[in-house]
Amino acid sequence: MGDRHGVMIRPVCLADLVSLEELGEAFAALERARRERAIARNRLMAVRETLDGVLDEAFRRQSFAPIEHLFHREEMALGGYDRAVRQMAQARQRWNAVLAAFAHECHVMGSGPPPVGRLN
Fold it and tell me: What angle is formed at CA 17 by the lines to CA 16 and CA 21, rounded to 5 degrees?
């Protein structure tokens, strides 16, 4: 396709810009991170519920010796949740960057070809 000056202008193809594969991968990573964060949050809440129940019983009995392992489980669950939150933030940042690039490319595609003076 040529313009009125005879300059060949190749149509812009989405595959030349932000690939649909990259967009899909970023979205899939974000969804995976959301699921992993939810699983980690549920795991942490379950451990804390167990710990709360055991602590109530320990206060009642005035015996705290056998619950040390629950504090360790809580620390591990909290560490897993913190990692999941960081992964979620990274996935969200990647998704937002891909979306911003995609939006910019859509804007550029919608604005038409560059002026003839800008062509090399």
Answer: 90
pTM higher than 0.70: no
Beta bridge partners of 61: none
| Per-residue model confidence as pLDDT tens digits over 34-70 | 999 999 999 999 999 999 998 888 888 887 777 888 8
Task: State how far the alpha carbon of 26 is from the alpha carbons of 6, 91, 108, in Å.
Answer: 40, 7, 22
Report the DSSP beta bridge partners of residue 8.
2
Match 């602590």 to its residue by tokens: 55
Other C-beta atoms closer than 10 Å to the C-beta of 11 total 8
Q: Where are the alpha helices (DSSP H) in 1-120?
A: 20-61, 68-110
Q: pLDDT per residue over 99-108, tens digit each?
A: 888 888 888 7
- Cα-only R_g, the chain: 27
Q: What is the predicted pLDDT for the residue at 115? A: 63
| Structure token pair of residue 119 | 């062509």
